[in-house]
Amino acid sequence: MSAPISRKQLSAAGLLNKARRFFAKIPDPCDGKITLVDYLMSGLALFGLKYPSLLQFEHDSREETTRANLHALYGIERAPSDTRFRERLDAFDPSQLLPLYKALFADLQRGKGLEGFEYLDGHYLLSLDGTGYFSSTKVHCPQCGEKHHRNGTTTYYHQMLGAVLVHPDHSEVFPLAPEPILKQDGARKNDCERNAAKRLLADLRRAHPHLKLIVVEDALASNAPHIRQLQELNLRFILGAKPSDHTHLFAWVAATPETREVEFTDAKGVRHRFRYLNGAPLNESNFDLEVNFLEYWEHTPDGKVTHFSWVTDFTIDDSNLMTLMRGARARWKVENETFNTLENQGYHFEHNFGHGNNNLSTVLMHLMMLAFLIDQIQQRGCRLFQAALTAAQSKTRLWRKLRARFDLCLIPDWDTLYRSIIQPPLLPLPPDTS
Ligand SMILES: [Zn+2]
Q1: What is the pLDDT of residues 218-254, one digit of tens each?
Q2: How many whole angstroms from 289 Cα to the centroid of ligand 1?
Q3: What is the largest CA-CA distance in the chain?
Q4: Alpha-carbon span 351 to 338, nearest angstrom
Q5: How many CB atoms lie within 10 A of CB 429?
Q6: How far is the CA of 131 from the centre of ligand 1 (A)?
Q7: Residues within 5 Å of ion ligand 1 by Cβ?
């Protein structure tokens, strides 16, 4: 938790209102009783309140208290049943949700929530990585990836490529629109992920034509076609590069007299050792594609040595070694602060809310990511949320407290809900008439 910023549009009420108005503009071939807005807002409530299952959400939303609260806080007129929810969203085209990531991001920018997130030369760090969001040994569709096991069973799965704005000094991360990795993309896993990256980056540039970004990725990304696309889209990069994938590059660096080595020990006793060379050919078959090479060893006082190597388009000199190294290593935040948070801090990511026959699992993945983005923006820019999180001591406890109150009392607005966690009120009981 950081910066003392607090803006109306960075509060739950403002962000959910933005989502609601966005959903209302999507053409809705209404099934008569429940509007598309109510289906989609129910999805945001399901993940926003961290319900463990759709069934539990349905049970609760039949109760008068929860129904009234869903109306007051999420603007839901009528929450759908578990079955209707799955059917309607299975038929919904998930790409219609993508502009909402940008709209929420624009609020974050306007509310100055990104102040302090620029990392190098006014650029933000954007970490890209793939992860799974559905898996089953039984349920599957034509888009499912397949893993065939030795014992003859098959695991079916869906994956996505996440793109998340990160900063080494801040705990918040902000996802931009993720891209599903589809089976049709190619027979091999890596083909799939690379093709998804191609679509994601092109869409990202269309959505954010002027955003100054440094893309940080793992070693799968340091290939010529990908680097050329990054250059074409005016995206800067720091990409992992393994010696085993880049024998030519490592040999080139070792044989070049201009290769420079720098070493120093910091106040904590950590020894930082760097080796770098600007303008090295990526590999033999792409000799004309020049990259700047950075290798790093971290020696901690307990004797542990960690080794990394990257390629970048930033010109490396003695003054930016630490900055480039820390920026590259912030890549892990897509896993640690995003996917792990979704998995272990109440969002029930990878827990199957439903697969459907068409789009359900992808629609649910987006609604979960959007609910996560809304939480992250609040954490960055809403003082009440920050204070409630401090009072609750952990995310998991905060979600539990939110939902407990949701079940128990009538809540007029988000401010009251958060205040009740910061300073729990005395519950006024009805008079004893026994
Ligand atoms: Zn599937």
Answers
A1: 998 999 999 999 999 999 999 999 999 999 999 999 9
A2: 38
A3: 92
A4: 15
A5: 6
A6: 15
A7: 141, 143-144
Cα distance between the two ends of the chain: 49
CA of 137 to the centre of ligand 1 (A): 11
d(CA 170, CA 399): 21
Q: Which two tokens stand for residue 190?
A: 């890596």
Q: What is the mean pLDDT of residues 205-229?
A: 96
362 Cα–ligand 1 center, Å = 9
Identity at 147, one-letter amino acid code: K
The SS3 assignment for 65 reads: helix
Give the residue carrying structure tokens 């790093």.
Answer: 296
What's the token pair of residue 244? 């085993």
- Residues 386-408: tens digit of each pLDDT: 999 999 999 999 999 999 998 88
Q: What are phi and psi of 266, to 5 degrees?
A: -90, 180
Asked if 163 and 147 count as a contact pair (C-beta separation under 8 A), the reply is no
Q: What percent of the chain has pLDDT over 70?
A: 95
Q: How confident is the model at residue 187 (pLDDT cuts 50, 70, 90)?
A: low
Rounded to the nearest 10°, the torsion over CA 351, 352, 358, 360 is -70
